Amino acid sequence: MIRLALVDDYLNLRDALKNFLCLWDDLAVIIEASNGKEFLDRLCMSADLPHIVLMDTKMPVMDGFQATRYLTVHYPFIKVLAMSADEDVESQMMECGAAAFLLKGEDADKIVETIHLLLPDDNCMIGKMLI
Description:
The protein is of the alpha/beta class. The protein contains five helices and five strands, in the order E-H-E-H-E-H-E-H-E-H.
C-alpha cells in the first residue's frame, strides 16, 4: 500500500483528488492539510508516515517550497510530487528537493502513473514508524 499525503489550500481540489486516488487499491490518503505547517504538524503526530506527498506550491502560512525543504532535511525518505498551476516554479521546487513535478489539471491517470514511478511496490515499507 502506497501511503499518500495531500497538501493544498483548495479543499475542493483535495477532495476531488482524494476521491480519485481512493479508486486505486494500492493507494491510501493518510494525511490531508491546507498548508505546509498544518501538514508538518500532522506528520509529527502520525504513526504511519506517507511515502509520497502531493504538494501544492503556493499556500498561506507555509508554502510548498518551505515544506519541501523541511522534508528533504528531516524526512529524506518521503518523496514530494510537486503540483502547481504555474509551470515556472518547476525548477524551484526541484531545487527544494521535490522528486517530480506535475501541472495542476494534468490528467488524473498521469498523477497515478507518476506516483507509481516514484515508489515501486517493493519500497512500500519505507517510512513505517516503529513505536
